[in-house]
């Protein structure tokens, strides 16, 4: 099985959600990050530290930009979505389950030919079981962002398997309280997990012990 983790935007909590999913679906899996841009601590290392699982990062670009933009800025070539698919197939053959974390939102270009995470998921769905999970915010504005993301995935033949609420505040306001119900209602996609705000700062042992409580279904 290949599980894709995308988000409604940059900074929505995909990496921490990916680590939580690695704990939930583990232990004999690998997390892949096709393209990393910027950052002092790569997302794959955050996942490895929090979840304790195997990780693989394919490409790194130094500037904190979309992969396509970062590659064009430096005038360097980067792997295509097809190249990424080949490497992920190999990981799936060795590990059984692969979690693939995207970059930014769903339609961010992963290569310089226009390939996106939905394109990568659609390519791999030809010969693997594929699930796509969408990480969302819960605050004001998230209904529009989440519906647009879900619509973009469906237009490419990908039915999202679940929403992951990336950072639910301990004391939610009116919008947050309403959106906990409105997100699955308006998108037609069930909530897989709700991660409390700040869990990415937990010590790894506590993160792993608490992860099961954040999930509503397997």
Automatic annotation (TrEMBL):
Pathway: Cofactor biosynthesis; biotin biosynthesis; biotin from 7,8-diaminononanoate: step 1/2
One Pfam family hit: AAA_26
Functional summary from the UniProt entry: Catalyzes a mechanistically unusual reaction, the ATP-dependent insertion of CO2 between the N7 and N8 nitrogen atoms of 7,8-diaminopelargonic acid (DAPA, also called 7,8-diammoniononanoate) to form a ureido ring.
NCBIfam families assigned: bioD
Lineage: superkingdom: Bacteria
EC number: 6.3.3.3
Record bears the keyword Metal-binding: yes
Protein name: ATP-dependent dethiobiotin synthetase BioD
Reactions it catalyzes: (7R,8S)-7,8-diammoniononanoate + CO2 + ATP = (4R,5S)-dethiobiotin + ADP + phosphate + 3 H(+)
Localisation per UniProt entry: Cytoplasm
Active-site annotation: 33
Residues bound to ATP: 11-16, 43, 101-104, 197
Positions that bind Mg(2+): 15, 43, 101
Annotated positions binding substrate: 37
Listed cofactors: Mg(2+)
Organism annotation: Saccharopolyspora aridisoli
A GO biological process held by the record: biotin biosynthetic process
InterPro entries xrefs: DTB_synth_BioD, P-loop_NTPase
Family membership: Belongs to the dethiobiotin synthetase family.
Keyword vocabulary terms for this entry: ATP-binding, Biotin biosynthesis, Cytoplasm, Ligase, Magnesium, Metal-binding, Nucleotide-binding
Molecular-function GO term, any one: dethiobiotin synthase activity
GO cellular component: cytosol
Record's subunit section: Homodimer.
